[in-house]
From TrEMBL:
Boundaries of every Transposase InsH N-terminal domain copy: 22-115
Record NCBIfam families: transpos_IS5_1 (NF033578)
Stretches the record annotates as Disordered: 138-157
PANTHER family: BLL1974 PROTEIN, IS1478 TRANSPOSASE
Protein name per UniProt: Transposase
Transposase DDE domain ranges (all copies): 363-456
Pfam families attached to this UniProt entry: DDE_Tnp_1_2, DUF772
Length: 487
């Protein structure tokens, strides 16, 4: 059951028992002002029954707690304690006065991430970004009307779309086939112990766990391991796992199905798939397979080939993002399986049209997006795709010297514009929690990613409001400084 909260008082009326008042220029007061809490609550309460169930927490408390956690990069426990200690955070969450008590149990943070979900956070991001974009466009139209200038692009393409893809690393142990098999073997041994205790057997099945552990430690402690030694270690661990899985099947026929916990049943299903994949790779003498599991606790995580300097592979979700000319970032695709981001260009352009009501005038993308199919798609809609044209570069002569230099200047400018989304990715990974996702479940990890994007857009709106305030005071920064302010 969801109970609507009464009107939240303004920050001037927020009661602080130890004296004083809230400051209007505080970051949490300013952030609370740009989030449409009432509209979000109207959609949030539809997920609850009006009569049955315990009264749920308000959406402002749920969403606000997630925003606080990602903005301050805290754990769930530290988030609850920080909210209890800070009256500005309590105002941000919709409190009427300061309360020196925990707002909820830290385990509720998991329920908040599940209940809101990535789709709901994405809708909130769309709502805030669309409102901000409409406000900026309305102000620009007023300036044009004052100058009596006519816009020739009212009925055509307008605006810029910047697209790129990145990988969000997940907090898992660096995957190694032998280490993964050793973990699977140890989990099967605990499952055998649980089933044996519930059975009527007098002799415990043999697992050779001590010998298996000694062989694994002797292998993993070696500094330089040859291919032959790695294959021998994999074969040894596979033999122990095969024996344990056979024993588990025999014991499951003698005990009730409810003997194992839900976590053990889930791990057993994952271990069966890990064993199948490792046997297939061992026989095929390869280290890659479609849908390869690299973590038993997080089987949804996949290796993503990125080709970065520090590592050829990253382990986490891959997402395709787009940025408008006003600096708003949207996640157009979030997937755990690897894919080629060049396929997303038509979809991202159509989503831009749905958000803005028109096609962009230009699309700024990396080299991987400049395929013949994407070029033809953009040309058919009158969209200019950044980058040099196909074919050999034009040779500079006396006749075309000005034209060639102008083309080079446009290409440099396009690349400079494209760097804005790279700065956005870096900003989210350094300042917010996008650098490493610590949530374990697939749904909660996706929610955390969407919250980071929502926070980034809110921070961009607050920075723009601050710059407008400086302009009103007469501050006029250099043009190069304005370019850096994007991210």
């Amino acid at each position: 059951m969801y109970k609507e909260k009464e009107q939240v008082p303004e920050f001037e009326d927020f009661y602080v028992p130890f004296g004083g008042h809230l400051r209007e220029d505080n970051r949490w007061v300013r952030l609370a002002a740009i989030i449409p809490w009432e509209e979000i609550e109207a959609e949030y309460k539809k997920c609850f029954s009006k009569r049955i169930g315990r009264t749920a927490k308000t959406v402002r408390l749920a969403l606000g707690s997630l925003l606080i956690k990602e903005k301050l990069q805290l754990t769930d426990e530290e988030t609850v304690e920080t909210i209890r200690e800070n009256h500005y955070l309590q105002y941000f969450l919709g409190y009427e006065s300061y309360k020196d008590e925990k707002p909820f149990d830290p385990s509720m943070m998991v329920h908040f991430r599940k209940r809101l979900g990535p789709d709901a956070i994405a809708k909130i991001n769309e709502l805030i970004a669309k409102r901000y974009q409409e406000q900026v466009e309305a102000e620009s139209e007023k300036k044009q009307n004052k100058k009596n200038q006519k816009d020739d692009h009212d009925h055509g393409n307008r605006g810029q779309l910047i697209i790129d893809a990145t990988c969000v690393p997940q907090d898992i142990r660096h995957p190694h086939d032998v280490t993964l098999l050793d973990e699977a073997r140890r989990k099967t041994e605990k499952i055998i112990d649980t089933l044996y205790e519930a059975s009527e057997l007098t002799i415990k099945p043999r697992t050779y766990r001590k010998q298996a552990r000694i062989k694994y430690l002797n292998f993993i402690r070696g500094r330089r391991r040859t291919k032959k030694e790695i294959r021998r270690a994999i074969r040894t661990q596979l033999q122990y796992i095969r024996r344990n899985l056979r024993t588990i099947n025999e014991l499951q026929n003698k005990v009730p199905s409810t003997t194992l916990s839900a976590k053990q049943r889930r791990d057993l299903i994952v271990i069966h798939e890990v064993y199948r994949q490792q046997v297939q790779m061992y026989k095929g003498k390869t280290h890659s397979i479609s849908g390869k599991i690299v973590s038993i606790s997080q089987p949804h995580v996949r290796p993503i080939a990125r080709g970065k300097a520090k590592a050829a592979f990253e382990f986490g979700a891959k997402l395709s993002a787009s940025m408008t000319e006003h600096g708003m970032i949207f996640i157009d695709r979030l997937q755990w399986e690897p894919y080629n981001e060049q396929e997303d260009l038509p979809t991202q352009i159509e989503k831009y049209k749905r958000r803005c009501g028109r096609y962009p005038e230009s699309v700024h993308a990396d080299k991987i997006y400049r395929t013949r199919a994407n070029r033809a798609y953009c040309e058919a809609r009158g969209i200019r795709l950044s980058g040099p044209p196909l074919g050999r570069p034009i040779k500079e002569t006396l006749e075309n010297k000005k034209i060639v230099r102008q083309l080079r200047k446009i290409q440099r400018l396009d690349e400079a514009i494209r760097q804005a989304i790279e700065g956005g990715f870096g900003y989210m990974k350094r300042k917010f929690g996008l650098g490493t996702i610590y949530e374990k479940l697939r749904e909660t990890s996706e929610t955390a990613i969407m919250v980071c994007v929502l926070l980034t857009n809110c921070e961009k709106i607050l920075r723009d409001l601050f710059m407008r305030f400086l302009f009103l005071l007469g501050f006029k920064p250099h043009k190069s400084y304005l370019k850096v302010l994007v991210y």
